[in-house]
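User: Sequence in, structure out. Go.
Assistant: Echoing your sequence, followed by the structure tokens.
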Amino acid sequence: MATGALHRAGPTEYGALVMEYRRLGVSGFRVPALSLGTGTFGGVGRLAPWGSTQAEEARRMIDICLDAGLNMFDSADIYSGGAAESVLGEAIKGRRDEVLISTKATFRSGEGPNDVGSSRFALVRGVEAALKRLGTEHIDLFQLHGYDALTPPEEVLATLDQLVRAGKVRYVGVSNYSGWHLMKALGVADRHGYPRYVAHQAYYSLVGRDFEWELMPLGLDQGVGTVVWSPLGWGRLTGRLRRGQPMPEQSRLHATAEFGPPVPEDYLYEVVDALDEVAAETGRSIPQIALNWLLQRPTVATVVVGARNEEQLRQNLGAVGWKLTPEQMARLDAASARPRAYPYWHQAFFGERNPPPV
């Protein structure tokens, strides 16, 4: 299964860019190496600092993506209270067959007692609402945005099986699960013949490598592809944060840092120094290097990038069509390495029987 999880389809060229398509886990479903996240669509509530892209600009951004071979767009019901899905739906009108849509549910979406979680009630209603906002009859990849410890996995997976059989969902995945959460669900799916999760949308970056301790080996073993969110470390690897300098005025970290993963400053700047060195050697930007590093990691099927505007989008698209050298990868690995938590540091002493995934 590990081999299947890493299989990559041949690249397709669009102008000066070469977009690679990869199998999502061990499924037959192929996704582009980069996907566009729609957290900047809508611009309502907590996500307003990320961006406020409306339908007309979103349509133009999707044009740019499709020209580059990026045809997958990721959303969620909680992004701007559903406005992101609505904007995406408007932007893809008339070309639904050209795009792949992934979206998510399970976080609280209303005030009612059942407006949260992965119960049959919540999932069926959540999918129906997403389909309406997106203006489509099916979702290509539907992911559980977070783990629901109060709903039995048998109920969750039976409901997803129902949605797949009804043609409303094509593939299913999860997001932000721990290893045992995901492994238990896969066991239930195998026992009852329910659809297996083929994707795990997870936080992973050069300044957030906890994913490698357990979730990456699980993905390799079970054939679960990784959909990476926040690949630039919650906005820290844009190249704008510098040692001894104040945070830029327009950084989203001013408003959203408390909701994201903490990163010690000394550690961050060690990684940025290494990125600067590689940037000087390659002529690439820091974000492009950080994204390219991720694209060469095991289990990574697609990296979700965001963009406030067309300029940022084109910059992020420049992360494909080339590769960091093994020596450059090793330097970045060394600069971003962190002490492992137990029992992973203990297992590392017994590499003969517990080889690392990378």
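User: And one key feature?
Assistant: Residues 2-350 form a domain with the TIM Barrel fold (CATH 3.20.20.100).
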